[in-house]
Each structure stands twice: as C-alpha cells, then as structure tokens.
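User: My advisor asked me to double-check a structure prediction for DUF4809 family protein before group meeting. I don't want to rely on an old file, so could you generate it fresh from this sequence?
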Amino acid sequence: MTKAIISSVVDLTEGGCNACGIVECVSYTLTINEREIPLEELTVASLVMTIALKNGFKQEMKMDMLDDYLSFTKSGYEVKLFEDYDQLTYRSTDNELQTKNRIKDTKELTEKVNELLTKLFKLETIEFEY
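Assistant: Sure, here is a fresh prediction for DUF4809 family protein from the sequence you gave:
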C-alpha cells in the first residue's frame, strides 16, 4: 500500500489597501514516495487528478456536442470526468461514480478519493496521513 502525506502551509497576506483586511492563503502539498507535489486545492478532483497523472494516466480536455469533459487515459483505458458546479461524475466503460468535489472532513475526502482510484482508475489503495 502506497503512503501519501497531505500537508498545508498558511500564509497571511495584507490586502494591499487600508480597506482590505488580512487574507488567509492555504497551500497544500501531497508527498508520495518522498516526492512533493503541490495541489491546486484540497478537493476530490485535485487529489484524483494528481494521483492519476503520477500513475501514468494522461489528461486531455475533450469537447463533445453536448458536454465538455476531462479524459484520463492509460493503455487504451479511459475514465471521463464530467463537472457540474460542485458535483463530479467519473465514468469508465464499466462503472460510474458521483460525488461532491468539496468535502470538508479530510477522512471522508480521502475515503472518496480511494473509492474513485480503486473502482474506476484500477489503482491500489493509498494510505493518507495529514
């Protein structure tokens, strides 16, 4: 089982004018096999994309007549991601899973990410630490 560590750094920045207050900026990093990978944000889509790409999947934006979607492919196998506001739909030839993108509870978030990675991307379970 692969181990992954999610860490964060909080930067406090002044807004730049007298009317603006202090702005909190949180940066997340995913460390797998001693390799640090910056995360855009701590969401289901960001974690799944980062881990899929690290495991050899290629990402491509595809435009269909009705839908635009992200395609993750590896050795002829494809997983499609359809985004609708905070709702994500991951679809492969034999399975489909829906989830919210933003999950506040990190345990629930990582459980959902593992479900998507194992059922749709056919990857091994990852043991997350925070």
